[in-house]
Amino acid sequence: MNKLAIPSRILAAALGGYALANSGAILLAAALPGGQAEAVTWGLLASFLIYTAAVMWVFSVRSALRAWLGVLVPGFVCGALAWILMQGGTP
Amino acid sequence: MTGHFRQSMAWLHTWTGLVLGWVLYFVFVTGTLGYFDTEIDRWMQPELPVATEMADARATVRVAQDYLEHHAPGHARWFISLPTDRNSPYLSVFSQQGRAHGGPGMHADRVLLDAETGRALRARDTGGGQLLYQMHWKLHYLPEIVGQWTVGVATMFMLLALITGIVVHKKIFSDFFTFRPGKGQRSWLDAHNATSVISLPFQLMITYSGLVFLMTVYMPMIVSAFYGSDDAAQRVFREDLASRPALVQPARTPASLLPLDHIIADAQERWGEGAIDARDVRHPYDAHARVIVRGSIAAGPVRAAPSLVYDGVSGELLAEQAARTSAAKTTRDLLLGLHEGMFAGPVVRWLYVLSGLLGCAMIGSGLILWMVKRRQREAKLGGSAYPGLQLVERLNIATLVGLPVGIAAYFWGNRLLPAELAERATWEANILFLAWAAMAAHAVWRPVARAWGEQLWLAGAAYALLPMLNALTTERHLARSLLTGDWVFAGFDLTMLAVGVMFASVAYALARRQRRFAARQVIDSPPPSHIVATRAEETA
After folding, report:
1. Taking chain B, what is the end-to-end CA distance rounded to the nearest angstrom?
2. pLDDT tens for residues B394-451?
3. Suppose B309 and one of A69, B319, B471, B530 were both cysteines; which one would form an S-S bond, judging by CB atoms 3.0 to 4.6 Å apart?
4. Per-residue pLDDT reduced to its tens digit, B278-331
């Protein structure tokens, strides 16, 4: 890993990973059937796993650019899907 | 698995483990002590009588109600906790003025009562085991939110270090049985592997569930996306999840309160004797008085209790709530319950403590491994310790041994500070951190090899002499507590003695090893680097 890439990856892991953990958990909560509080709880419980997987992804891929894309693209996709589901009323 | 993947995970393991490793060590040491929180509380208040089992819940609650009627008549909330087990060894009450639903403006004051006479029990002011336990997620001196986030980030690092540690591991099973002592870096690697592998399920559980405790603090946006972001919305989420029956506002018209033992009798009929843990009275002597009876959250690993809501005036049962309402909530409660181990009896409690100590050993050996590896590399290259390595060496001494010395000082402070001292509990905690700061200063000032030995001997003495200090300053010395079967006091004294002996034997082993290396150095080949470092510093 070259030296300039490390700070960039740390940011991608900390912030990008956090964003992905949130949007992934919100999508999960929006998509799950059943009561809202339960679905949100499942999302909260899963969020730390998503975060961990995202950080491992960021540090395992070969370039910092791929690291950023790998957290931001799924982050946006999850966020957009969650938004669509939530607009459609309770799923 | 590709070589690149394993290599990058090894890199991540090293750095996530190192950067906040000292914070994690603090969290694991204080958290492990937390498994003996009420035992430490009791040792730190030797004036209190030996706790006895509750004879009769109905009589005991009557005693508590009498006390509250005299001492907290106008208060919005009464809370009575029955002496059921080690989690709550004494009858205790607290009351709140102001709003009954918590939040700002409440004044809580917990009082321990003699369950027979209803007399308030007085004892020295101390933070007790509770303070040590609370430090493991709040730290100390810091605003709560800062402490919680620091610990949260450290816990996330821990989770990453655990999972990457599993990934980089080639042969988990054989490491279980591998230990090659006296071989420097290899031995530390073996120790790190063995402690981690033996206790891996515990470490994964404790780390993940640690995050779950404060998941709405760390991940507030997930709740806000559905409930809105203000405090009230967060409360709606919590009530929604617990499906708690809504409580009413006070009617502001006075009414008489039913004797609580009638309500206890009814609850006992439903749940059986001994299943009741606490009673919560909202708006006593109001027409809308509510009495909430809770079961024990320590009945099993799922940290949830059923509750019954009664009308405090008529005694009518208004609502009944089960402990388990949904799979999501039960999963959360199971994680929290496993983390706290409130359900654990003596054997399981000791297993918790041993697992916690293995966690401390895992973190400590990892921190030492980082240092030994680089020290040996530097020695081979003929260089001396660079600033980063020196920093880690000093931090390791100051934390791995210095923190335990600080905690011993906390116990010494408990026995030696005058009973009437103002802010006494605050000063006990200050002593912990002053002693720890002194150890940090010592670790910076002394040559590395000397600093390890000196602090280890000091820790050995500070713990091993605690039973003697206890004998000199209280009536409840070890011989007496053994003879009278006072297992909390005897257990504390004996454990401290064992911890002292352990530190002293490590100090002794280290001293022997250093002598052997010094002797061998005369005959052959380069000595280990820490001795070179010591020599260089001494001649400088």
Report:
1. 50
2. 999 999 999 999 999 999 999 999 999 999 999 999 999 999 999 999 999 999 989 9
3. B319
4. 888 888 888 889 999 988 888 889 998 889 999 999 989 998 888 888 999 999
Dihedral of alpha carbons B178, B183, B186, B192, sign = positive
- Indicate whether this complex's ipTM tops 0.90: yes
Q: Which of B9, B208, B332 lies nearest to residue A41, judging by beta carbons?
A: B332
Rounded CA separation B262/B227 (Å)? 40
Residues of B in contact with A83 (CB under 8 A): none
Distances in whole angstroms, Cα of residue B153 to Cα of each of A12, A78, B149, B335, B346: 16, 24, 6, 19, 32
Is A48's CB within 8 Å of B211's CB? yes
Question: How many A×B Cβ pairs under 8 Å?
Answer: 91
Instruction: State the DSSP string of B506-522.
Output: HHHHHHHHHHHHHHHHH
What count of Cα atoms within 13 Å lies in the side-chain half-sphere of residue B444? 7
CA distances from residue B411 to B49, B419, B427, B471 in whole angstroms, order as listed = 19, 14, 12, 13
pLDDT digits (tens, 9 = 90+) for B189-238: 989 999 999 999 999 999 999 999 999 999 999 999 999 888 888 888 98
Residue A4 CB coordination number (10 Å) = 9
The structure tokens 């029990």 sit at B121
B107 φψ region: left (φ > 0), alpha (ψ -120 to 50), beta (else): beta
**B174: its two tokens:** 């054989």
Q: Which two tokens stand for residue B217?
A: 């603090």
- If contacts are CB pairs under 8 Å, which of residues 31-90 in chain A contact chain B? 34-45, 47-48, 51-52, 55-56, 59-60, 62, 82, 86
Domain boundaries, chain A: 5-87
CA distance A2 to chain B (A): 12
